[in-house]
Write a structure and sequence with these properties.
With 207 residues, this protein is of the alpha/beta class. It has a single domain, classed as 3-Layer(aba) Sandwich (Rossmann fold), CATH 3.40.50.360. The chain contains six helices and six strands, in the order E-H-E-H-H-E-E-H-E-H-E-H. Strands 1, 2, 3, 4, 5 and 6 form a six-stranded mixed sheet that branches. The protein is globular and about 50 Å long. The termini are far apart. The structure holds flavin mononucleotide (FMN).
Amino acid sequence: MKVLLINGSPRTNGNTARALQEVANSLAAEGIETETVWIGKKPVRGCIACYQCMEKSLGRCIFNDDVANRIVEKLPTADGIIVGAPVYCGQPNGAFLAVWQRVCISARKHIECKPAASIAICRRGGSTAAYQCMNMPFEGLNCPLVTSQYWNILFGMNEGECEKDTEGMQTMRTLGRNMAWLLKNLKRGDAIPRPADEPWQPMHFIR
Ligand SMILES: Cc1cc2nc3c(=O)[nH]c(=O)nc-3n(C[C@H](O)[C@H](O)[C@H](O)COP(=O)(O)O)c2cc1C
């Protein structure tokens, strides 16, 4: 079993990377593999609402010139998904949101129903708002949200400073164990299948 970890920070070795590493170590101890995709420092696009990914059922974004489709390619083989992002101005950082919104819209079929978690990292404030924001796509895609002993948040300013937030680091380890616990239970031969969905009733509030 494999969990895809997405590092939304522009810092390679920042606090988001450290948080995800702590989760990865915890998952490894439970026998679960991880793969990390870093969104990097290069320019990224926001969604332009062309709807081509949906109308043509592309399963990926029409734009291939940034990291979005590299994430999309990793999704089909992921049993679980964890996104991590730093808090900028009380929100998840813009580059992460720009990429992740395109991934969620174009590759929703590879995210749907998979156990998922968000992690928000900040110096002082805004982490719970960012955490809530990051959970929103998962909540609309039937994903069981994986939680921990506290909200999945961590504090630190400079690279590696989050190590001093010992409770936050413990929260990361618990998150890894909880993800492993859920994945193992869902994979059991006697797991009860998810009930069938009703046909979707799109409702755009147009009369
Ligand atoms: C543009 C910008 C805005 C930020 N806004 C906030 C904020 O609103 N609240 C906060 O507590 N920290 C804020 N920070 C600090 C980062 O959240 C913090 O340094 C975090 O650890 C960065 O994670 P990283 O090392 O993974 O990039 C901001 C940092 C930057 C660069």
